[in-house]
Amino acid sequence: MPYETLLTELSDSILTVTLNRPDRLNAFTEQMMRDLLAVCDEIDAADDVRAVVVTGAGRGFCAGADLGGGGETFKTPEGRRGIPRDGGGQVALRLYDLTKPVIAAINGPAVGVGATMTLPMDVRLASESARFGFVFARRGLVPEACSSWFLPRVVGINRAMEWVMSGRVFPAQDALAGGLVSRVLPPEELLPAAREIARECAENTSAISMVLSRQLLWKMLGADHPMEAHKLDSRAIDFMGASDDVKEGVSSFLEKRPASFPMRPSRDLPDFFPWWDEREFS
């Protein structure tokens, strides 16, 4: 479906999602939030989407929140009751629960929410021209998009504190050294590299295994004991061990041929998925 602030292209089971406000360096707006939430729903509903690549149009990835509203940009409108939900946080949580792997191809500046929205993505690659910044304190704000949870888990608390406390903008090589991205590539190699990772996921893995594996790894980051992982591992192994996908995976290995996994997330997920609690925001 068409989106106001995004472009989407599906090819070889890989959906490329492009943030598309290049005249504003793809700055984040409420409409972009709505579009990203909607495309996540589309991704989860589509069995023909096996992996996702997210990038930006033009020379930027996302320059953070659109500051066109000036000093009133972040002010809650008069008369609104209750505390409004942070838009970046809604996107981050939706990505966190997504059933497909997501590769960020960060092609240029990724600042503020432009950086934090990538944290729940599974792999981050950066162009040599990319720049990063957790600049909130320099704007009188605090980290958003659940980044106080995600960032220390991705890069460690020491590095997270350094970047957040200084609010400085830093180059892609610093992001690589700090573990924020896994590779820094020449601009012309960025999207091909991201799509190659996505292609490996799409062509070689069970879609059901991918759903369960992605969520096991993410959700266990907050577990207080490895026994919690053991309980879920055991349920998943028990379910998958009797499945058509594991039969195909083992048979294809023994027969030395590519696997053709028959199971689909739209109909074949186990009855214990999702296993985490839904929590209403209040």
Task: Provide an overview of this structure.
The chain has 282 residues and is an alpha/beta fold. The protein has 2 domains: 6-69 and 83-202, 2-enoyl-CoA Hydratase, Chain A, domain 1 (Alpha-Beta Complex), CATH 3.90.226; 205-268, Lyase 2-enoyl-coa Hydratase, Chain  A, domain 2 (Orthogonal Bundle), CATH 1.10.12. The protein contains 11 helices and 9 strands. It has helices at 30-45, 87-96, 113-116, 147-155, 157-166, 172-177, 187-204, 207-219, 226-241, 244-254, 265-268; strands at 6-11, 14-19, 51-56, 102-106, 110-111, 123-127, 131-133, 169-171, 183-185. α1 (30-45) runs parallel beside α2. The radius of gyration is 20 Å and the shape is globular. It starts with 5 loop residues before the first strand and ends in a 14-residue tail after the last helix.
Q: Per DSSP, what share of the residues sits in E-state strands of 2 or more residues?
A: 5-15%
CATH superfamily of the largest domain: 2-enoyl-CoA Hydratase, Chain A, domain 1
* Terminal-residue CA separation: 31 Å
Shape verdict: globular
Task: Give the count of helical stretches.
Answer: 11
**N-to-C series of helices and strands:** EEHEHEEHEEHHEHEHHHHH
Radius of gyration: 20 Å
Q: Report helical residue fraction.
A: 40-55%
- Uncertain segments: none
- Determine the mean pLDDT: 94
Strands in their spatial order, largest beta sheet:
1-2-3-4-6-9
Major beta sheet, specifics?
6 strands, mixed
Broad CATH class of the largest domain: Alpha Beta
Count of DSSP E strands? 9
